[in-house]
Amino acid sequence: MKSELRIHPVVMVALFALAFVSMISFAGYWYARLDHLSHLAAEETALRGELEQLDTWGKWTLEYVKIDRGIDYLSKNRLTGETKRQLTEQIWQISRSYSLDPLLILAVVAQESHGNPNARGRTRSGKESGAMGLMQIKLETARKMAYHFGLRVDTQEDLLKPEINVAVGTAYLIRLIGKYGSWKEALIAYNLGHTSVDKMLQNGIPLPTRYYERVISKYWELARLSFL
After folding, report:
1. Which CATH class is domain 62-224?
2. DSSP letter for each residue of 71-104
3. CA-to-CA distance for 40 and 32, rounded, in angstroms?
4. Which of 1, 93, 125, 171 has the greatest number of CB atoms lying within 10 Å of its CB?
5. What is the DSSP string of 151-214?
6. Over the stretch 168-193, which tens digit does the pLDDT of each residue have?
7. Which phi and psi (to 5°) does residue 141 adopt?
8. What letters, b where the CB count within 10 A reaches 16 and e where it falls short, cover 131-140?
9. What's the pLDDT tens digit per position in 36-61?
10. Cα dihedral angle (81, 82, 83, 84), rounded to 10 degrees?
């Protein structure tokens, strides 16, 4: 004898309603979890960005301190506090803008003038060469470089102003790096002049490396100093 299980319609409606409510509740919970996870992912991304920014700021701060201490070491109290601050900010901005190691700029300063802002270059005969200031820039070269920076260089005495000298000297060095594609050839050209270097390269004449080696030696000397 067969038995039939009959569910009252009211119970059926109640069961369907309960199932529907359960599905709605589960969907709500699921979407809430997804929204929470999305917020967590966004917060993690933002946190990583902040950590990367802090790391960048830390590197910038370290470079700034190295430049400041390096200038102080080279100048031997021959620069005022305000001038040292201006030079530090100047070299720091240049190194960031052109992805240059700031200590290499200071190494050129060390080799060219030993940090003396009033240095005047001389030829082997003892006559003045026309090279002036921290980076030993000549007036003709300085005028060409100053034009691109909106600076004004009228006389050799202008080149004894550290902030002008470093601006045009670094601009010239950057142009040489762009021309030759290497620090080595750029530094040799900075010392000998790009015309002389071009002729040597065209004629297959080995470039003299003594100046380059001296600058690199100055770089490692600055790098070894405990600036912090």
Report:
1. mainly alpha
2. HHHHHTT-S-HHHHHHHHHHHHHHHHHHT--HHH
3. 12
4. 171
5. ----SGGGGGSHHHHHHHHHHHHHHHHHHHSSHHHHHHHHHH-HHHHHHHHHTTPPPP-HHHHH
6. 999 999 999 999 999 999 999 999 99
7. -65, -40
8. bbbbbbbbbe
9. 667 667 766 665 655 455 444 456 67
10. 50
Measured at the alpha carbon of residue 18, what is the angle toward residues 17 and 24, in degrees to the nearest 5? 90
Question: Which pLDDT score, from 0 to 100, does residue 54 have?
Answer: 40
Residue 155's identity, in one-letter code, is T
Measuring CA to CA, which residue among 206, 158, 214, 164 is closest to residue 190?
214
The CA distance from 50 to 112, in Å, is 41
- What count of Cα atoms within 13 Å lies in the side-chain half-sphere of residue 54? 6
For residue 136 the two structure tokens come to 């030993």
Contact 166, 201 (CB under 8 A): no
Q: Where are the domains of the chain?
A: 62-224
What is the separation, in whole angstroms, between the first and last Cα of the chain? 98
Q: How far apart are CA 74 and CA 113, in angstroms?
A: 9
Confirm if 144 and 167 have CB atoms less than 8 A apart.
no
For the entire predicted model, the pTM comes to 0.72
Strand partners, 120: 132
Cα–Cα distance, 135 to 106 (Å, whole number) = 9
Encoded amino acid at 122, one letter: R
Q: Would you tell me how many other CB atoms lie within 10 Å of the CB of residue 121?
A: 16
